[in-house]
Every structure is written in structure tokens, then in C-alpha cells.
Design brief:
By secondary structure, the chain is an all-alpha fold. 70% of the residues lie in helices and 0% in strands. It has one domain. The chain is built from eight helices and no strands. The two termini are 19 Å apart. The relative contact order is 0.18.
Length: 233
Amino acid sequence: MIDLGPWVLAELIALGVIVGFLAGLLGIGGGMIMVPFLNHILLSRGVPADVAVKMAIATAMATIVFTSLSSVRAHHSRGTVRWDVVRRLAPAIVVGGLIASLGVFALIKGRVLAGLFGVFIGYTAWRMLRQADVPPSGQLPGPAGQWTAGGAIGFLSGLVGAGGAFVSVPVMTRWGIGMREVVGTAAALGFPIAVANGVGYVLGGWSVPDRPAGSLGYRREARPPPIAGRLLA
């Protein structure tokens, strides 16, 4: 198990409080905030860079299970969750998340994942600053469009360890859903995203030997095991 001193524990507690607050306020899962900080903490404890990125992403996704539950409860009490949208997108989100976390995540190097994470952060910020520009359609797409959107949300979230709001918010805005409902619905979608990807990360490394205590799906060796038996390459 990675040794965490009192200062590191204090940093993690502070990070958890901040992420939990922002999850309730903005409907985010918090992965985009957690991943850089967790990666820094792991690097400072001597974890190799390639491994630290993947551990940060997988750990951030596991915490989104809890931030999404807290957030969706608050938004549901205010009537701002479109449960009809959640029911339509959730099955495809689960499928896309499992494809990412069970297969693709294991094949991509940590450095590449770090680059993808940076690209998604930059692109999301750029779109927000531009207050982009595509007029709302005012209606939900058909089943094929919903499955495509849900699968993309689950898949991209699994690669970067995020709760999916960076994709689902602009998608639902494009569909003409009001911003308050967009935020609440994005929070609700974070739960199937986190569960599907979290299970995928664990199953992807379940049979890997020599995992350190306190971890699932983590390995130190350099030789590549079979895809089904590795989480971190």
C-alpha cells in the first residue's frame, strides 16, 4: 500500500470537500479536478509517471460514485433531474464505459492518457469561453442518436476519469434542455458512468498478480499480460 503521511491525508480531505461542493453546485463528478491532484500526489510518493496517471484516473472514477449520489439527491429534491433522459442514456453509457475501462484503457500508455486528458480539458474550456454557438434543436433525438450520445459519454468518461458532464452538458443543451435541468441530469448520469467504469477497471485487472495491498487492478511488472487481465500497462 502506498504510504500516506498526515499531510497527504489532509490534502486528500481538502480535495474531497472541494470536489463534493462543486459536484453539488455544477453537476460534475469531479474527475477533472481530482485527476491532476491525485496524479501529483502519487508522483510525489514515488509512483512511476505512466502508472500514476492510470491510478489517478481509476481512483477519481471510484470517488464519483459517491459525489454523484450526493449531488443527484440534492438536484432531485429540487426537481431538476430529467429522469426520462437518464433512463434513455444510461444503458448506452454503461456499454460505452465498459468498452473503455475493460479494453481500451488497458491498451493505452499512461502518457497518452495524460495527453488525452489535457486535450479534453482544453477543448471543454474553449467551448465554454466561446459560449458556443450551435442553436438548440429543442427536442431529443431518436433512439440511434440517444445511443450514440450515451455511448460516447460513457466511453470518453472512462478514458479520462470524469463523470461525463464535460460531454453530457453540451449535448443536452443542444437538445434544448434548460440549464438547471442539464446540471441536475448530468449529476444523475454520473452514477452509471462511475459504476460501469469502476467495475471495468477492477475486472480488467482482477487476475493480475502481485498487486500491492489496498489496490485492485494495479501491477508493477513491465511485461504485458493478456488484455483481460490488466488494468495498468
